[in-house]
Amino acid sequence: MRSSLLAQLLLLLLLLAAGRDVSGETTDRKPNIVLMMVDDLGIGDIGCYGNDTIRTPHIDRLASEGVKLTQHIAAAPLCTPSRAAFMTGRYAFRSGLGSTGRVQVLLFLGGSGGLPPTETTFAKRLQQQGYTTGLVGKWHLGVNCEHRGDHCHHPNQHGFSYFYGLPFTLFNDCVPGHGSDVMADLQHTLGNLSVLLVVALFTLVCVRVCGLLEVSLWLLAGLFSLCMIAVAVWFIPFKLLPTWNCIIMRNQDVIEQPMAVETLPQRLLGEAQNFIKRNADHPFLLLFSLAHIHTPLFENPAFAGKSLHGRYGDNLEEVDWMIGKITETVDSLGLASNTLMYFTSDHGGHLEDGDSIVGQKGGWNGIYKGGKAMGGWEGGIRVPGIFRWPGRLAAGRVVDEPTSLMDLYPTLKYLAQDTQPDRQSDGFNLMPLLEGKAERSEHEFMFHYCGIYLNAARWHPPGSDSIFKVHFFTPNFSPPGAGGCYDTKVCLCHGEHVTHHSPPLLYDLFHDPSESRPLTPDTEPRYAEILQQTAEAVERHQRNQTNNLLSDDPQSHLAAETRGVQSQMTWDKILWRPWLQPCCGTFPFCGCKEDTTHI
Prior knowledge:
Layout: H1 2-28, E1 32-38, H2 57-64, E2 67-73, H3 79-88, H4 122-128, E3 132-138, E4 162-166, H5 184-210, H6 217-239, H7 241-245, E5 248-250, E6 253-256, H8 264-278, E7 284-289, H9 310-332, E8 339-345, E9 354-355, E10 359-360, H10 378-381, E11 382-388, E12 397-404, H11 408-415, H12 431-434, E13 445-450, E14 453-459, E15 468-475, E16 498-508, H13 527-543, E17 548-550, E18 560-562, H14 571-574, E19 585-586, E20 589-590
Parallel strand pairs: 1-7, 1-8, 2-12, 3-4, 3-7
Antiparallel strand pairs: 2-11, 4-5, 5-6, 8-11, 9-10, 13-14, 14-15, 15-16, 17-18, 19-20
């Protein structure tokens, strides 16, 4: 009997020891990371951020089971610079992706601009820590540098071991009848010029043939050459945009050109789910970068006409369903307790986008002023920020402190136990805030850029709930008095397109989040101190940036030009180059279709 009891006790001790090993193994395993980023989503479109007319139950569930950030800020109000900052944890000008003029995002997949190979993304850092890394969806940070196939800007070169999706973005050009997003006025001018040259050539030929005047053959030959050049410059890069820009790649292979937009959401969702399933037994990072809500809006029959807000609302409810499917995949595999899930948008909603047929195509930014491409106004940079990690993060927690999309880089490094030296970061580890171990954000000051120009800054004074926002200049709305740049669809950041303020505009976001009541010395006792503290912080910010050079222009003395980092947004890098164009088949006869019979 005694020997039997001893044997049972020994067995119990062995089982307990084994249990401790198993639990220790689970605890010690690095967490999985699932990042979900929507394109052009307004913070006012989500139920848990105050919307009660669009149904977003799955996104709301993430917030109720996790932590919601109410002052989550994008580093730029446009996708290319915002995503560059998100990926690197650094302001976009540091990687040369801040704009100096009209062009503020990459416009052609066949251009040479993009995220430089010298930059380091959070994917690359986690890959070095043993993570399997994947990006499904939109990239929009370039592909090639010097020749087709060098893939110097490609996601595979920036730490993503697997890529499926849009190396560019979803533009209106991708769907016939939706117009063009790419320099429409220039297209119109080139088209008219081509027509005029062709008409002139035809007229002179008729004059010569009819014998009305003696027209030199050299003149006709020269005019014919001009016609061919004009037509080529206009037609090839612009009228073939669906072929050049609207493609799908799997890793470094073009698998569909041009892409079939109608099945894109299902394919992206399936690829994201399959990536999670394939890598469920070891640490992984997935960035699910949705093609929604950017125009053109999708027309999925399963969601058409189901919302109260037309096609835009239908698309947003489809987004919510997709987020629900990703959450369901994580939970069904038993990964929830060891997976950090994150939901956000790259910037605010596009207020000016809409037409008389579809209606509003862009998002709603709630009570916040401005939107996409409107500089530092809150509506263009304040975005949803939701983290869920059952067992690690308290359910239903709300964080009202200033945070940034750039904070993801240091946060993921911390979770991956990456302690290797790194370059300067503009973000901070969010885990102390998310876990309730810290009450205040490390962002005492935050800086907001319009292109490469520092146009606003905020100060969260120690010991105060106030968050003061200073605007040094603001974009000029068009037409004057409107709530956005409706004439041009996006606001610009330079020259006559902006108004400089002296003294700067000052708001207290704690009491006036809609930025509707500028403070004055009469309404704010600390007025002079706030402007002084902010000016000194801006000076330190710029002085400490080795790649920064202040402009000599007294009217834009807070403008920051990059130095030492080659700009990726110049015309020579933006414009289309045939030898850089990704292509399936033999260029220029590009064309292929992905087998979607399994979808």
